């Protein structure tokens, strides 16, 4: 009996440890063919998280932060409003020592403005990740999904002009928003009125 209880406890602890991994699992993963010259030819893009999704762009080639400084850029275009226009994009670039990110908003007249800095990092020699807070996109409360695509630009060796790769090659990926759990409202306790006291008996007059 003791051995069975320890086994059950171990399984419960293992399941609990796996919950954070499941919470960060990729919502979307799209592959792209080896079809562009340069270091930033996209192999796959993975999206994970809900309110602040992480866009991870994985390339075929290995590259360093210093090697793409002032030569390589990654962008994530996002349609948050559902009007077929990609009104936001995240720009990921190297400053020579580390990766940086900026969120831009594109107006209808074509002008752009910086909305916010973004957290960007390089988890391994073939990828870069950026985190985009959806709250900064002015997304309508009724939206149930957003659309995105990734584009990379590279100049230098192997790219006589500019090497551009797009993932996916056409259209955009639709990522469904994970709804936040609704708060549970506890019912108000029912107040049971106390019974009214019985009227005191009126003593009969003495004869």
Characteristic key phrases:
207 residues, mainly beta, Immunoglobulin-like, 11-stranded antiparallel sheet, 1 helix, globular, disordered N terminus
CATH class: Mainly Beta
* Spans where pLDDT lies below 50 across 5 or more residues: 1-26
Strand residues, percent: 35-45%
Q: Whole-Å distance between the termini?
A: 81 Å
Count all strands and give the number.
11
Layout of secondary structure:
Layout: H1 2-23, E1 26-31, E2 42-48, E3 54-59, E4 72-79, E5 88-94, E6 99-106, E7 112-124, E8 127-131, E9 145-156, E10 159-167, E11 173-176
Antiparallel strand pairs: 1-2, 2-3, 3-8, 4-5, 4-9, 5-6, 6-7, 7-8, 9-10, 9-11
Structure description:
The protein has a single domain, classed as Immunoglobulin-like, CATH 2.60.40.1190. By secondary structure, it is mainly β. Strands 1, 2, 3, 4, 5, 6, 7, 8, 9, 10 and 11 form an eleven-stranded antiparallel sheet that branches. The chain is globular and about 45 Å long. 11% of the residues lie in helices and 41% in strands. It contains one helix and eleven strands.
Summarize the structure.
The protein is mainly beta and 207 residues long. The protein is built from 1 helix and 11 strands; from the N terminus they run αβββββββββββ. The protein has one domain: Immunoglobulin-like, CATH 2.60.40.1190.
């Amino acid at each position: 009996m003791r051995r069975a209880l320890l086994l059950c406890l171990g399984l419960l602890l293992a399941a609990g440890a796996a919950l954070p991994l499941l919470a960060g699992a990729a919502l979307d993963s799209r592959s792209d063919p080896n079809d562009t010259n340069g270091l930033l030819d996209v192999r796959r893009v993975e999206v994970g998280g809900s309110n602040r999704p992480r866009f991870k762009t994985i390339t075929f080639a290995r590259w360093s932060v210093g090697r793409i400084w002032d030569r390589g850029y990654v962008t994530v275009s996002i349609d948050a409003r559902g009007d077929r226009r990609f009104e936001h994009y995240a720009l990921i670039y190297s400053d020579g020592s580390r990766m940086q990110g900026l969120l831009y908003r594109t107006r209808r007249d074509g002008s752009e403005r910086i909305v916010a800095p973004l957290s960007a990092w390089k988890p391994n020699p073939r990828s870069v990740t950026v985190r985009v807070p959806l709250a900064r996109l002015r997304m309508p409360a009724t939206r149930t999904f957003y659309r995105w695509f990734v584009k990379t630009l590279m100049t230098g060796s192997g790219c006589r002009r500019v090497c551009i790769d797009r993932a996916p090659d056409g259209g955009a990926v639709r990522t469904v928003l994970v709804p936040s759990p609704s708060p549970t409202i506890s019912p108000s306790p029912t107040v049971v009125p106390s019974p009214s006291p019985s009227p005191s008996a009126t003593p009969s007059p003495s004869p």
